[in-house]
Queue: 2 jobs
Job 1
Amino acid sequence: MKNYLLTPGPTPVPESVLAALAQPIVHHRTATFQSLFQAVQKQLKWLFQTEQDVLILSSSGTGAMEASVTALFNPGDHVLVLQAGKFGERWAKIARAHALVPTVLTCEAGQSFTAAEVEEKLKELGRVHPIKAVLFQASETSTGVRLPVREICAAARAHGALGVVDAITALGVVDLPMDAWGIDVLITGSQKALMLPPGLACIALSARAWLATESSQMPRFYFDLREERKALSKNQTAWTPAISLIQGLHESLRLLQAESLAEIFGRHNLLARATRAGVQAMGLELLAKDSPSDSVTAVRVPQALLAMGKKIPELLHKKYGITIVGGQDELEGKILRLSHMGYCDRFDIVTALAGLEMTLLELGHPLKLGVGVGAALEIFQKASARK
Ligand SMILES: *Cc1c(COP(=O)(O)O)cnc(C)c1O
């Protein structure tokens, strides 16, 4: 049986990246590594659409989220957290762990925030104390919604706050021009759209954000972005980097650059639209109706199958070798999430939809085999006819 990985991290790794990961180790304090690092730096600036340094940390994405908090703030600082799901909640937890005072704006699962809501909240909070930053996700992976990054960053800036963006499932999926949109902190992780195994986080700070680091007194050592920036000026990292992953990153970014940013965003949008059409044709309801993310589609388990909600991903995995994920916490057993991010193409989507149809039918969901697949194919066919 073949395996198909359609989870929103980790994602599949292309063959040439796997080969790059298997290269002999080079020493990190050599000219060979420095030139690799310099090349990767240039590639990352392209992906982040920034003139700023892009720091590479040896950690999963959460490490960079925490590093941004200890870099920018002081204990007692007030921040606004936009919590559209689990990962928004993570921002609040990190903020509290470092004695910040987060105000958490929540919404119903599957909903997003408007810039007007954020603006309103900032205005209200700003009357009592200055708000240092707005912390949020560009794409909330737990519910499959996208947030209006450009508008939220503009609202933050208008209130003297930094816009700190966890783009771990958005960078390399949708357009996020860091400099042009005035994003102050932009973060991603290796196991999502970068098509690598887990283990690297990348983070860039705007000039305004670097200025804020100068007045931060937070305790930190390993994740000290100022140290990383100093090392980066010599094409080095502060500590021993995950050398193999950086070799892999060079190759994955080469693949992405061969495609162009516009094509990458177009491809993800096409896969997302086909997935959404496919599941809806099966009679399933999208969790994120208004602002669906192009990286992951979250869909509600049909009412009649709720008791078996957790079994659906299990069956898909066991019987068909297709790995998707369900929901977490209060969404456990209630939703299914299919990723279309990174090294994923049309026929991965067709396969996943086919497996899902067979599984749902088997569990008693009424559908005509092929409806979901057909709806996705319609979209792919239209797109390929246009080329
Ligand atoms: C995957 C992910 C993270 C990072 O989680 P790690 O387990 O630390 O890699 C953070 N935010 C979002 C939105 C994610 O999807």
Note: The mean pLDDT is 98.
Job 2
Amino acid sequence: MFLVAVIMSLATMSVAEPICEESLDGPQFQGRATYFHAAPAMAGNGACMLASDDPMVVGMAGANYENSQVCGECIEVTGPQGNSVVVSVIDMCGCEENGLNLSQESFRILESDVSFGSIDVTWRVVTCDIEGNINYRFLDGSSKWWFGIQAINHKYPVARMELRQRRTNAWIDLERSNTNFFMKPTSISTIEAPFELRLTSVNGYVVTDNIDAIQSDELIEGTGQFGNCRDNYDCTIDERTYSGEATFYYGAATAAAGSGACMINTGGDLMIGAMTAALWDESQACGECVEVTGPQGDTVFIQIIDLCAGCPEGDINLSTDAFTQLGNLEDGRIDIEWKVVECVVDGNIKYKFKDGSSKWWFAFQIVDHRVPIKSIAIKPDGQDTWIDLPRQSFNFFLQGVDVIDVPFAIRVTGTTDEVLEDRITRFPSSMA
Ligand SMILES: *[C@@H]1O[C@H](CO)[C@@H](O)[C@H](O)[C@H]1NC(C)=O
Ligand SMILES: *[C@@H]1O[C@H](CO)[C@@H](O)[C@H](O)[C@H]1NC(C)=O
């Protein structure tokens, strides 16, 4: 059986940046820009039905409008003088392909003499420099029979919107209208709130929110933004805060050396804990980082490396080292609140293969991940399909069904739905 695990060095592997971090700074377009008096569009009467306080707005040519997917997108426009301005798309214009109809205010930054009427510009899509969360608005007249919902204040264009009703597992795709609303599918007769909403950006970020009621034409404040976790290492991965009790155990050093249920070796770090079976998720909890707040308001950051089969949901069994940062051992049990946060890690994800891994079978775990790992898929060179690898309860992903040799591509998906693609070129046992 697998006794020894070997850490595979990634020195020879180029670790791809997460796909979702791919720059939006895509191709440059060249076109003609005109200008318009943007006040009506800024009041929400443009094709995108997006109101704007900021006059730096633009109408996009029909040929570039992508059935309103460009709405809310930010573009950087450079004029003949070399000046640039960033504008957001709130309208469609009757321009030729790659042409823009700029607000007069933004046109002036590129060409102060508006009597020119139209100028040559180049432009490209950029990340919107915005603050706060994505908000939502239902179309006027929305009800459980018929509704449309739009996302407002998103950093990247929205590629997809889905919803899921309580007590169901299926996500339902909403249909994008050309006025920048996502509509309830007519194939379903009624959809009632509350429901979960899931937005995917064009570059792969996912935000999930809860909608409590279908309220016509009112701003509904959301709780997330595309790509937020990338800006702030301590941000919460999962919005839930759990309440429970902390217990403690002696001998955490043994677990931290790799004998815990997660088989994670923390390299001597004893800020660790064991997760209740109810939230263990077939070892998906392994390696996740948790911020635990004790009864006195003190907090400690721990990593989950073990399973606490006897703990009720909400409880965490902490190492004595972690427990004593929050309370006294004499107390035995203390009240805690906790939430999953991003781990602060140096460097890239690593793959730790079981010794003896070969094309006949192999098993590996992911080490040094910033967010919990949801799934792993691999794609052997020359094949078109990704193969999901099943997660084992001991926090390894196993391939033992087919003959799969190196090299293969690997796709790691985090619980935040961030995706990282990598390549495995050899099994560690074949390393010198
Ligand atoms: C720009 O917008 C104005 C106002 O909507 C419109 O009259 C004009 O025709 C537009 N220009 C182009 C080139 O579509
Ligand atoms: C905490 O972990 C220790 C060591 O595994 C175990 O003996 C103890 O029962 C656990 N506490 C609870 C409440 O399950």
Note: The CA atoms of residues 245 and 335 lie 4 Å apart.
